[in-house]
Amino acid sequence: MANGRHESTITASFWRVEALARSIGFGLGIVAGWIANLSLVILLNTITFVIQRQIPVDYIHGELGRLALLPVDIFPRGAFISLMLAIPMVFAASAPVALLRGDAQPLVWLIVSSLVLLLVTCWAFFTASRKFEGLGG
Questions:
Q1: How far apart are CA 97 and CA 4, in angstroms?
Q2: For the whole prediction, is pTM greater than 0.90?
């Protein structure tokens, strides 16, 4: 009887730790998605700034946001990795949910690709701002 109680205590504490880890991972996924969204908007505005042409940033962001509602499972693995590396905000909504279902790989890809996009955005912004000489003629 004592062994049964001890085993159930270990099992209960294991489930609590697993639930805490998934909650922390879910929060990291939300933060990574936020970074991906913000980086994409800044990058698109930087491109608009550099080429000095009007780009519909809100339209592009909105259409990619609609694509973000699709689950990770419908994409083949190669297409998923390619899209995640190119535009991580596409999976900003579904990667944390995949973690709650037990698949951590989309979340890891989201975090890594969001940080890479953030670095590219910072590099592009600071490179463009160094070349800026002012407005007007």
A1: 34
A2: no
